[in-house]
Design a protein that fits this description.
By secondary structure, the protein is α/β, with parallel strands linked by helices. It has three domains: about 150 residues, NusB-like (N-utilizing Substance Protein B Homolog, Chain A); about 50 residues; about 200 residues, Rossmann fold. Helix content is about 45%, strand content about 15%. The strands form two sheets. Strands 5, 6, 7, 8, 9, 10, 11, 12 and 13 form a nine-stranded mixed beta sheet that branches. It has a four-stranded antiparallel beta sheet with strand order 2-3-1-4, with helices on one face. Helix 15 links the parallel strand 6 and strand 7. Helix 2 packs parallel to helix 4. The chain starts with 10 loop residues before the first helix and ends with a strand. The N terminus is likely disordered. Bound molecules: S-adenosylmethionine. S-adenosylmethionine binds next to helix 14 and strand 6.
Length: about 450
């Protein structure tokens, strides 16, 4: 949300030079440390949250503010940096430590969150003054952030939402899907996202209790404004094992595999088990193969909570094989995950073109291994939550030339939603899809059969 009203400063701003009088909020300190960890040290938000960094020790109100600030910096990074650059005559030196993050967090909060600007500037200056490396920059912080508070909203008008998507992704998405797609993706990126659930039991009951929008027999969308709390484990039905959090796009690969009760199915690269759960709930005999032991433990916990029977195996998909060929395989290949930028905006800064190139051979190798697990006539779905054609369309084009497989048309009538993305045997959900109705993760998926 844009905050265009400016508060006059006057005497209040003088107080920011007396840092000892200002109590530093844990939320703003956490956001500053998190933004430094992600933007300067390449950590993901999930890494930061897993490491703790004091997040769970905060009061719920502070946790909400901390996430809002860090999330807004990541969703609006291009615009935040562009506005800041108009006031910084030269870039901050590397020895400025957390200073860049202090400025980014305060700017994001002033421009986009509804907090009083004087308090934000005051705290940012105090935070700068409280640390050895940033102390020397406290006067600069005061001057720059006062400008951001008074002139920033107007300056912001010069910088389009598309600035928040890194240039390499803007280029790649424009080339693959056209310029509107980048604008739509940028619009989605700036918004709070709904939460999608795959409901495996008693849809009618839980859809009412959760006040969700029913997208399909098992897919429920909870509007961001209707969320009861950020902690999904406290929502009705979670402890009953009735549903799992899963984007509506991520639910589609298991649907197009169309497994029947009793079929033998291998879910390759399976943790944390979103797709294994769907397959097992259809009555299939599912073996979930995952390389990471800790992630496999999460899969086991999830299956236990959901009351589903899945055989889990800790193994590399390239080395493991079933004892006998199976009816179906789902390959959710490791990818750059650029398609999940709506809820994980850190992917936009953490991923690059080299990673896209480096993954292609790994993805093709896993797909090759998967085809050898299938009986003749067995079905396979290959999918990636990447918006990059190199990880989706290009892998399948190569498979059709080099592997003993042929494509199978997707039956649109079997899909509860998303028919508009079906193109023969594949589905491409581009970034920016459903931009007017809450968004959908970008995904690629294709159905093949073993010859
Ligand atoms: C996109 S995630 C899978 C999400 C999962 N299918 C779901 O729906 O919940 C990719 C997973 O592949 C695993 N992985 C990566 N390379 C692998 C390999 N060679 N063999 C097995 N698992 C692998 C990663 O540890 C990660 O858990």
């Amino acid at each position: 949300m844009l905050r265009h009203s400016n508060k006059p400063f006057g005497p209040l701003i003088v107080m920011v030079c007396a840092p000892m009088h200002v109590k530093l909020s844990p939320a703003r300190m956490w956001a500053t440390n998190t933004i430094t960890a992600i933007l300067d040290h390449g950590k993901s938000m999930d890494d930061v949250l897993a490491d703790g960094h004091g997040f769970s020790a905060m009061e719920p109100r502070d946790r909400a503010l901390a996430r809002a600030i860090a999330g807004t910096v990541l969703r609006r990074l291009g615009q935040v940096d562009a506005v800041l650059a108009t006031y910084l005559t030269k870039p901050l030196p590397a020895k400025a430590g957390l200073m860049r993050a202090i400025l980014r967090c305060a700017t994001a909060e002033i421009l986009f969150l509804r907090s009083p600007a004087f308090a934000i500037v005051s705290e940012a200056v105090s935070l700068a003054a409280s640390k050895g490396k940033t102390r020397a920059f406290r006067h600069l912080a005061n001057a720059v952030l006062r400008k951001v508070a008074t002139e920033g909203p107007e300056r912001l008008e010069n910088f389009a939402l598309t600035e928040n998507i890194p240039p390499w992704l803007r280029d790649s998405w424009t080339k693959a899907y056209g310029p509107e797609c980048v604008e739509q993706a940028a619009a989605i990126l700036a918004e709070d996202q709904p939460t999608d659930l795959t409901v495996l039991k008693k849809m009618l009951e839980w859809s009412k209790q959760l006040n969700g929008q029913v997208l399909g027999p098992q897919t429920l969308r909870i509007d961001a404004a209707d969320r009861q709390s950020g902690d999904v484990t406290k929502w009705p039905g979670f402890s009953d094992g009735a549903w799992q959090v899963q984007d509506a796009a991520a639910a589609l690969p298991a649907l197009i595999l169309n497994v029947q009760s009793g079929e033998t199915v291998v879910d390759l690269c399976a943790a944390p088990g979103g797709k294994s759960a769907q397959l097992a709930a259809s009555g299939a005999q599912v073996t979930a193969v995952e390389r990471s032991q800790s992630r496999l433990e999460r899969l086991d916990e999830n299956m236990k909570r959901l009351g589903l029977n899945v055989q889990s195996v800790c193994a590399d998909a390239n080395e493991w094989a079933p004892k006998t060929p199976v009816d179906a395989v789902l390959v959710d290949a490791p990818c750059t995950a650029t398609g999940i930028f709506r809820r994980h905006p850190d992917v936009l800064v953490l991923k690059n073109e080299k990673q896209v190139r480096d993954l292609a051979d790994k993805q093709f190798a896993i797909l090759t291994a998967a085809t050898h697990m299938l009986r003749v006539g067995g079905r396979l779905v290959y999918c990636v939550c990447s918006a990059q054609v190199e990880e989706g369309e290009d892998i399948i084009a190569r498979a059709l030339k080099e592997l003993p497989v042929r494509p199978v048309s997707i039956d649109k009538d079997n899909l509860p939603y998303g028919q508009e993305f079906v193109d023969g045997y594949s589905m491409r959900i581009p970034p920016g899809a459903w931009h007017e109705t809450g968004g959908l993760d970008a995904f690629f998926m294709a159905v093949l059969t073993r010859q």
